[in-house]
């Protein structure tokens, strides 16, 4: 899982490395036990042993791990074996690496997992390994929704009265079929409305029967993972990555291979070819969280790479409705000649997240299999709500909600950029806003020498919840920055608190 820190004021202070001999003894005992039970490769044995140490509290939150070199020497293992185990634990959010200062146990992740494991132990129950990993990995439900929390829309602006009227109308008109599960991939008029919107505004090439209404991006991703990949298959994920996708792939038993992102989007290296992908997960219109827009050249390169590997591309177009400057960016799907891209979107951002509705566009040859699996695995329903939403779109309410929201987020973004100007002015010190003017968050990039985790903690102590960019990184150790959401922050709050963030960044740049 993404090593995302819960930035709250009660975070422990990082401590020094523990006694290496004691830790090594524990790890070797665990590895011996595992070797006698299972034919696991060495790096997997070490991964399991370290994870056990974390879950049992033998390595405490905030504690610094001995270096991979020292561990390798003490355990008589190759450094590659140790690094592979540590990387996997970082990907899953147990550990967090900081360039120049070492690898640390992530904040309350292990404690939470230990609590869950203990509680279940008392009841005589036991989680699967996957269950333990999911329970132990960072949970976004612990994140408070605060003014600078990224990815949160201003759902207080949702036209509740109008929505209520539409819902009442469709409940009154409801005939028994509408109370059944949905068998055809969703309410037909809603699928048509989504198809019309995507064709015109996102250049997606589709017919309405290729649209599946899902309960949001998580469900779309899980469906793709279940139908297009087998347990253990490789999925390329952007590094840094959207935690929700990482968790969906973790839950479906896929092997994640992080591929770095630069200012033109995902940038596969020759060495990545050693991990041929079955799936490639992307946010090409506005990379989450850096904000990079995937260039045309990179799009063609990526599609060629997918075709070469016969891989499926999962395009998560989560916030492209909110583009504030420059020409609209077409979907990657619109360039796809081979039918390898599955396109997904959500109503969480324009309407409200609890609506739990999104859509997945499936290439024609896959439609029947996806419809059937969606029915068998998810038993989708909520037809009266889908009917109300279809009318909401057909009557132009969606377009007006979008217009209002776009205007409001553009103002908020502008105000935040203005408030941050004092820390961005002196370009020589290396702070700048990366990525496109789009969406509900922006990314302040910082030089590598800045400890963005400490900066986020310092801001949390002033009541501002921002997230460090490094916390979204899977394998990378070079990215530093702050992810600031403005979707949920009213203008006056941005004007009041933005300068506090700017002062914090300035202090961090000055090394104070
Ligand atoms: C990259 C990305 N994809 C998708 C979503 C939304 O997904 P859902 O439809 O599950 O609400 C988010 C929400 O923050 C996101 O950041």
What order do the helices and strands come in, and which of them pair?
Elements: H1 20-37, H2 42-55, H3 68-75, H4 79-91, E1 95-98, E2 102-105, H5 109-122, H6 129-136, H7 160-173, H8 188-202, E3 211-214, H9 217-228, E4 234-239, H10 243-251, E5 255-262, E6 265-266, E7 279-282, H11 296-309, E8 312-316, E9 341-346, E10 358-361, H12 367-378, H13 383-394, H14 397-424, E11 432-434, E12 441-446, H15 452-461, E13 467-468, E14 480-485, H16 491-509
Parallel strand pairs: 4-5, 4-7, 7-8, 8-9
Antiparallel strand pairs: 1-2, 3-10, 5-6, 9-10, 11-12, 12-14, 13-14
The structure holds pyridoxal-5'-phosphate.
Pyridoxal-5'-phosphate is lined by residues 151, 216-218, 242, 244, 283, 288, 316, 318, 346, 348, 353, 358.
Structure notes:
- By secondary structure, the protein is α/β, with parallel strands linked by helices.
- It is about 45% helix and about 10% strand.
- It contains 16 helices and 14 strands.
- The chain has helices at about 20-35, 40-55, 70-75, 80-90, 110-120, 130-135, 160-175, 190-200, 215-230, 245-250, 295-310, 365-380, 385-395, 395-425, 450-460, 490-510, and strands spanning about 95-100, 100-105, 210-215, 235-240, 255-260, 265, 280, 310-315, 340-345, 360, 430-435, 440-445, 465-470, 480-485.
- The strands form three sheets. Strands 3-10-9-8-7-4-5-6 form an eight-stranded mixed sheet, sandwiched between helices. Strands 11-12-14-13 form a four-stranded antiparallel sheet. A two-stranded antiparallel sheet has the order 1-2.
- Helix 1 packs across helix 2 (about 40-55), helix 5 (about 110-120) packs across helix 6 (about 130-135) and helix 7 (about 160-175) crosses helix 13 (about 385-395).
- It is globular and about 70 Å long.
- It starts with 19 loop residues before the first helix and ends with a helix.
- Residues about 1-15 have low confidence and may be disordered.
- The structure holds pyridoxal-5'-phosphate.
């Amino acid at each position: 899982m993404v090593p995302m820190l819960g930035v709250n004021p009660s975070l422990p202070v990082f401590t020094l490395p523990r006694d290496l001999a004691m830790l090594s003894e524990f790890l070797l005992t665990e590895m011996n036990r595992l070797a006698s039970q299972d034919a696991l490769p060495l790096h997997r044995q070490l991964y399991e042993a370290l994870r056990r140490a974390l879950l049992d509290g033998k390595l405490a939150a905030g504690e610094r791990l001995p270096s991979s070199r020292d561990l390798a020497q003490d355990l008589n293992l190759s450094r590659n074996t140790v690094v592979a185990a540590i990387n996997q634990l970082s990907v899953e959010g147990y550990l967090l690496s900081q360039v120049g200062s070492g690898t640390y146990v992530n904040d309350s992740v292990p404690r939470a997992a230990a609590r869950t494991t203990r509680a279940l132990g008392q009841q005589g129950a036991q989680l699967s390994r996957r269950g333990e990993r999911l329970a132990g990995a960072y949970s976004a439900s612990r994140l408070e929704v605060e003014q600078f929390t990224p990815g949160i829309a201003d759902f207080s602006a949702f036209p509740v009265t109008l929505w209520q009227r539409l819902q009442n109308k469709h409940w009154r008109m409801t005939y028994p079929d509408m109370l059944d599960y949905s068998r055809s991939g969703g309410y037909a008029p809603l699928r048509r409305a989504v198809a019309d919107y995507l064709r015109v505004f996102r250049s997606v090439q589709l017919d309405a029967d290729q649209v599946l209404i899902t309960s949001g991006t998580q469900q779309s991703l899980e469906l793709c993972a279940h139908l297009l990949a087998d347990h253990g298959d490789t999925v390329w994920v952007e590094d840094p990555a959207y935690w929700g996708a990482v968790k969906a792939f973790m839950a479906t038993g896929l092997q994640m291979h992080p591929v770095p992102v630069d200012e033109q989007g995902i940038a596969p290296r020759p060495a990545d070819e050693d991990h041929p992908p079955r799936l490639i997960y992307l946010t090409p219109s506005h990379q989450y969280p850096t904000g990079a827009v995937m260039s045309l050249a990179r799009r063609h390169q990526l599609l060629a790479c997918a075709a070469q590997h016969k891989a499926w591309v999962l395009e998560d177009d989560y916030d492209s409705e909110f583009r504030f400057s420059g020409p609209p960016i077409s979907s990657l799907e619109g360039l796809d000649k081979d039918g390898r891209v599955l396109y997904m979107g959500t109503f969480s951002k324009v309407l409200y997240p609890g609506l739990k509705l999104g859509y997945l566009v499936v290439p024609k040859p896959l439609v029947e299999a996806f419809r059937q699996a969606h029915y068998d695995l998810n038993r989708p329903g909520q037809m009266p709500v889908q009917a109300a939403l279809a009318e909401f779109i057909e009557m132009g309410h969606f377009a007006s909600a979008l217009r209002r929201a776009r205007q409001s987020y553009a103002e908020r973004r502008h105000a935040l950029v203005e408030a941050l100007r004092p820390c961005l002015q002196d370009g020589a010190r290396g702070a700048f806003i990366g990525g496109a003017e789009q969406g509900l968050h922006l990314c302040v990039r910082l030089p590598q020498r800045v400890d963005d985790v400490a900066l986020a903690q310092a801001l949390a102590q002033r009541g501002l919840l921002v997230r460090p960019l490094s916390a979204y990184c899977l394998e990378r150790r070079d990215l530093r920055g702050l992810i600031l959401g403005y979707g949920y922050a009213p203008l006056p709050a941005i004007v009041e608190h933005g300068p506090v963030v700017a002062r914090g960044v300035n202090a961090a740049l000055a090394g104070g």
